[in-house]
Amino acid sequence: MGMYDLVKNDDGLLDDRIQNILALEEGIESRKVDESAKLLARKVIKPSGIGGVDSPSVEIVVGSADCPSISAAKAVRLVSLDVFRGITVALMILVDDGGAFCPAINHSPWNGITIADFVMPFFLFIVGVSLGLTYKNVSNRIDATWKAVFRALKLFTMGVVLQGGFFHGVHSLTFGIDLLKIRVMGVLQRIAIAYLMAAICEVWLTNDVLVDSGYSLVKKYQLQFLVGGVLTAIYLVLLYGLFVPDWQYQIPIHGDRSILYSVKCGVRGDTSPACNAVGMIDRKILGIEHLYKRPAYGRTKQCSINSPYSGPLPADAPSWCGAPFDPEGLLSTIMAIVTCLIGLHFGHVIVHFKNHKARVFQWMISSSCLLASAFFLIYFGMHINKALYTVSYTTITTAASGLLFAGIYLLVDVCGYRRPTYSMEWMGKHALMIYVLVACNILPIFIHGFYWKEPKVNLLRWLGFTV
């Protein structure tokens, strides 16, 4: 858990010799703050607005490493980070459990955006914000890089185990996966890749520039903005420039028998479910057997008579309807990294701007620019598409992330309304545990494991729930 200090009080009225050090604890990397020979000021502020009250009262606490009883200044957590994560986890559970019954909150079958389509960008965004705090001060760049690589590998491996298909038999209580068919990419894998790339950028790509304005902030991290621009350009060139040839796939039926389907493409720059470059790259590099078997485009009108719900295939269904497609594929992960880098910029604002008004102002500027970019791209024909992670999807979801985070920051960390958000704060602190237990079917499998004579007569049935 990382510890971060924001020097100076939020309204700038205290003397520079008395600094308000807020230890903001975050869940990525541990760092100890040396409190010896420091003068800590704790400001008592009523929730009366962005800048607090005009004349805040100050409690001076003199602390030292040798006198823990006197060093009583309590570390204060940046609660808005946890609340944002908690809201994202709650939203994830909502769309996973209720999406099948309500298309408005389920993932969009292809083009368009729904509530569910904000979950992944929200996770990536808050990872970036956290990284801005985690790597505020890096003493050893090589050591920090290796730690980031190790953490990313652990998260990626966990994702492959949990989402690769090993835990698949919720109702039949079966498990295990053929390594020739294991899914390589997934939610945790994408987060791991984005985290690693953003961490490397934060460790190595910074300038020694004193930040006193939005312009100087951009100048200090201009290399990171350059990386984001280059990644976006690479994505656009590959998505719209690669030629997608005809391709085939098989669907097993009984025993060793299977049906071979052919998909006609022979196009360049297509963004349809069948002939886009995102799917082609995954088929070529990962292999079609290692992709997600139930893509959202199975609920499109071409592939379901009950669209936007899942259903039987229409009589004239195209051949690609049963093909695998990974919504967390390789090419689309490039823009996921960009989302994380944008979140990193929002984290930099927390580090370098010392009062609430300045932070919120910078966030609103960035969010407004992203929102305007999204409308511009949509107006000129770039579809919002979560499966392809288009640039328009990136800009509109990061704009929403920035606005939501700024609102939570004002509500919780500035105005102090923590009681209504306690449940979200708790979920945010245990986000990974909840994701593993609920979204990866570990908890359902555990519950279904207690049954009477046969799996369908299980604990949930005794409690009146159907499974």
TrEMBL record:
Residues passing through the membrane, by range: 115-135, 155-175, 187-205, 225-243, 330-351, 363-382, 388-412, 432-452
Official protein name in the record: Heparan-alpha-glucosaminide N-acetyltransferase catalytic domain-containing protein
Source organism of this protein record: Vanilla planifolia
Keywords: Membrane, Transmembrane, Transmembrane helix
